[in-house]
Amino acid sequence: MKNDEKKPIYCTYHDAPGHHFYGHPESPDRVRPMQAWLDSPPYPDIKWLDFEPAQEGDVTLIHRMALLQGLKEACQLGPHEFEPSPSYVTEESYQEALKAVGATLAISRRILNEGSGRGFAIVRPPGHHAEPQESMGFCLFNNIAIAAADAVASGMERVAIIDFDAHHGNGTEAAFWETPEVGYMSTHERNLYPGTGGLRSAPHALGRIINIPLPPFSGKSVFSAIFDRIASPWLSEFQAEMLLVSAGFDPHFSDPLTTLTLDTAGFFEITRQLVTLSEAHCQGRILFVLEGGYDSVALKDNIHACLAGLCGEQDFTDNYGPAPAERSDMGSLIYDLIDLHHLKEF
Ligand SMILES: [Zn+2]
After folding, report:
1. CB 287 within 8 A of CB 121
2. Are 211 and 190 in contact (CB under 8 A)?
3. Structural domain boundaries in the chain
């Protein structure tokens, strides 16, 4: 463990300045405060990787060619919204989205080449709502799904994705609906956009696709319990060789779009749990990929906390401090999940 923690933590940064729509919450301003980290990383183990835009052949591991073509044509029309959530494109969105995929693949391929390693792709636009045939929910290409498919194409027999964004990753689930090599577990606030991810919504894939809809105001005790009692046995039984994390920070209590109640210390704690799980079950391969998170002060602190967790450090900035009263009662949810997915109890 100690030696592993001295390895570089691979990071990429892509703020996609050309993908920007006036007044929209998914903007370059979300990540821009972290740009200073490129010259002055918050921890000495962080190593920034260069990257190229992804090839279209990488993107078509997940998305239909018709989506790529449609998106290119939409960009030629200039800046406009295209879906009620609302998502948008500009003239440069297609190229910016290819770069977000490229920045994600730069780390996942590095980890695969080296046999183990940790990383964080600080990229936008986000990806987990983008389905094989449709861009939606602020997402154009599904960065993490493409990385998972690429890992399988490179010889990984099983890849696990854990998605702690406050919204269900319908796109990632759809991409791997019938893919036995890829497991998907999502914690999300129930009844939020896009309305998918019910407890029993994937009955054909019990033990592989695990949806965990949470009541509003669920906080760190809920997340910790789920990662201990659901994610841990799931990763053990699924035998994933690599763990990809859809790291959405909209579960933070300050977030304007959600009502979950994680705080920055909570993101640090769940990162430590996920790192431990990756060491125990996934040969130390773990990659965080940025999804949502729309309060830019909290987003920087939360990513800082996750980087601390990945680097084996303890100190991080926390402007908002602890969450107000959180809900810790989950009713029978844990037992329902264990029962439904035939997980072992520890
Ligand atoms: Zn979200």
Report:
1. yes
2. no
3. 2-340
Catalytic annotation, residues: 129
Fold of 2-340: Arginase; Chain A (3.40.800)
Q: How far apart are CA 343 and CA 346, in angstroms?
A: 9
23-62 pLDDT, tens digit each: 999 999 999 999 999 999 999 999 999 999 999 999 999 9
Handedness of CA 31, 166, 232, 315 (dihedral sign): positive
- CA 189 / ligand 1 centre spacing (Å): 9
Number of H helices, E strands in the chain: 11, 10
Each residue's pLDDT tens digit, 187-236: 999 999 999 999 999 999 999 999 999 999 999 999 999 999 999 999 99
Residue 5 banded pLDDT, cuts 50, 70, 90: very low
Which residue from 212, 232, 139, 145 is spatially nearest to 181, judged by alpha carbons?
A: 145
How far is ligand 1, taken at its centre, from the CA of residue 113, in Å? 31
d(CA 88, CA 162): 26
CA of 255 to the centre of ligand 1 (A): 10
Q: How far is the CA of 123 from the centre of ligand 1 (A)?
A: 14
CA distances from 29 to 143, 158, 186 (A): 20, 36, 26
Torsion of CA 44, 315, 111, 127, to 10 degrees: -120
The per-residue pLDDT for 2 is 45
CA of 47 to the centre of ligand 1 (A): 27
Average pLDDT, the chain: 95
